[in-house]
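Anyone able to model this chain together with flavin-adenine dinucleotide?
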Amino acid sequence: MDILATDFLDAFQELDDSQILIKETVQKFVKNNFLPNITDNFEKGHFPKELIKEMGKLGLLGSNLHGYGCAGLDEISYGIIMKELERGDSGLRSFASVQSSLAMYAIYAFGSEEQKKYFLPKMAAGECIGCFGLTEPDFGSDPAGMKTFAKKEGEHWVINGSKTWITNAPIADIAIVWAQTENGIRGFLVEKGAKGFSTPEIHHKLSLRASKTGSLFFDNCKIPKENILEKTVGIKNALMCLNQARFGIVFGVLGAAEDCLNEALNYTKERIMFKKPLASFQLIQRKLAIMSTEIAKGNLVALQLAKLKQNKKIKPAQISMGKQNNVQIALDCARTTRDILGANGISGEYRCMRHMCNLESVYTYEGTNDIHLLIVGQQLTGIAAFE
Ligand code: TGC
Ligand code: FAD
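re: yes, here you go
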């Protein structure tokens, strides 16, 4: 059998039948429903909301959660879903990450039985869209410093403050909101339409354009006292949600990286310069070989993390190493492909520049590249260098 450029070490050649079916199903969904309009959607800053229920029907939302209408898949299958969505566009994977690993997981892990029964089946079906509000204008890498405050007043919680850079905010039916209380940081469920709650869109993004991003504003926002996530006791619970989403990113970004490598290979075999295909020049082959090698290593990292997570042995610093490493690989592949395509590389007629612009956000969100290096550094030395 030939060696696949995007899986040089055959890491993904041992999937079981169900994992192969999942991969093919998501690939087909992305190819038929998402890709035909991505260039226009990216230019217009449009997220195709009409696809959400279809994603729900396919079991792609909350797919590694068990019960409550969720598919209960294994961690490799979850990773494959993220990878195939991000092969299409990081914005599509972002939607699924936030819905599944941040919003649904928060309710799944820290909500009451009533909250789980009420929200999770609707969210798995794509009938209720979630967002996750942790970042504030003055507290990005250091969310524990947040100022948003929730105060208990009789039968209600009253929330004041703001969150920013929140994926899905303008289209969300429900927001998971982290706020200071008299007893530390707790999580809350704020439903669309709550008095004093608004979710304006952030405009002029040059990255993740086919994804909706907004702010959350709370002006004496009143929610029922039951809308607290009762098992939350501090910032640690928000960080536990991030572990889930960061794990998905480890797989997801490889989809974008592989799409770039395929684009670079096709292009360099066709494009003639100095009377020869670009693919015949040593410098070009070196770039292709480095991309393929880094993707092969990234695939092994992803699969090893999935194994650890499946066996419930994974540690946050291991996920940080994977997120930092694989996002860097994907961004490097996108930039290299952009370079290899010359002037065509900056055109939306090709895919690499869109992936590259998207990956600049992925490099920053869910913990910046440097923050993840510092988390690994803390693990190695026992010294936290954040402060
Ligand atoms: P620190 O004092 O180190 O820890 C506080 C407590 O939390 C525990 N802990 C964790 N637990 C589970 N998972 C993790 N990843 C954990 N990290 C820390 C820790 O053991 C401790 O527990 P205990 O029992 O001793 O109380 O916390 P810190 O406040 O100093 O923070 C450290 C730091 C910088 C690593 C953390 O704040 C961090 O990760 N910052 C990055 C912020 C971030 O990633 N924000 C993401 C926002 S969501 C988003 O970007 C969505 S993008 C979505 C998309 O479109 O895909
Ligand atoms: P800052 O924390 O100000 O960091 C700026 C720079 O300083 C970075 O290079 C950083 O690495 C560096 N730095 C910071 N602290 C240190 C330190 N101690 N030592 C060394 N260097 C340091 N947040 C949510 O809560 N929910 C979402 O759904 C969400 N979606 C997002 C979608 C998009 C498109 C984007 C771009 C962001 C999103 N975010 C979301 C916010 C994201 O998580 C934050 O942007 C991220 O955590 C970084 O925070 P910041 O932007 O405030 O950067």
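The chain has three domains: 17-124, 130-234, 236-381.
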